[in-house]
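Hi support team,

I submitted a single chain yesterday and got back a structure, but I'm not sure I'm reading the token output correctly. Could someone confirm the output below corresponds to the sequence I sent? I've pasted both exactly as they appear in my results page.

Thanks,
R.
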Amino acid sequence: MLKLFEVSGFKNFKDEMTINFSDVRDYKFNNECISNGLLSKVIVYGKNSVGKTNLGLAIFDIVSHLTTKNVTPNLYDYYINSDLRNGVADFHYQFEFGERVVDYYYKKNAKRELAYEKLSIDDTILFEYDYINKSGNTDGLSAIAPTLNWVYNDVDSILKYVMNNTVLDRHHPLSQMMNFISNMLWFRSLDENRYIGYKNKSDDYYEFIFDESVLSEFESFLKKSGINEHLVVNKDIDGVKRLYFDGNTPLPFFRVASSGTKVLYTFFYWYKTAKDVSLMFIDEFDAFYHFELAETIVDIIEKMKNTQVILTSHNTNLLSNKIMRPDCYLIMTEDKITSFANATTRELREGHNLEKLYMSGEFNE
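Hi R., thanks for writing in. Yes, this is the structure output for that exact sequence:
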């Protein structure tokens, strides 16, 4: 799981922004939000333009240079913070797998090229390399890949080079880290289905629903969400199958469905097709949801035991200890991310009304 993430110099993050998933309190309720001693399910709140979307893009930057998974074009335009001009963006990740900790730090320039890279396992440095000055120390890698040719003229990432040319046991911390990164998923959609990670392509986005059992499950999912519609798959005159609302005059789903219903389709698609996702980041996940529906989605997400989930929202109705807990609600400002538990001197208990406290400014620092 992701234990710590820090970023600076990226988009609106001129200074360092940190999210610490190991900052767990000893609350005795909603423990499904905690896994292996780390925050597993969190919701990030913050005013418009503080960088909630950019936080997700920053976390998922690692996907772009260590995997071949999909990155929707244009999401990483204007990469470096505008005040830094010719500076670099710094990214720092700590992953925890059992008792092992992998620490990965790198810098990238405005072209998203690596300027520096450093990797440690349990505080032991495996390598660090300066791509600008073409110098560094890779002695720690010799035990892992003793036969590799250590010439870096054409290598865009030493870590990727090692992992692509070395067979490691699947329980090795680096194998676990790469598996985790390969299964990360960011999405924020509507029908355009913009996403980062997990898959190379999502060609089945419209077709996966054609399976009768999946279609039936989606209908039930919609009914639980308050949408009582019967759906049918028809083959049009062009020979292509498409999803329709059934009725005397069938209506094409993706042309007439509301924004909220389309968002539900996207969530359902990823929920069904990305069951082994390691970390899921859903940006403005409930932008088109009624508050009761948002609670239903959170309840579904909390049951995803093996998935670390980060949601961003403006919906204060979700601020309840019946849904999550104070260390899992995070407030993002222009310069930091703070949990509710750390944003007040008050000892927060299960009976506290978090929404009321939030609206009254209790967590303003």
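A quick pointer for reading it: The CA atoms of residues 244 and 250 lie 6 Å apart. Let us know if anything else looks off.

Best,
Support desk
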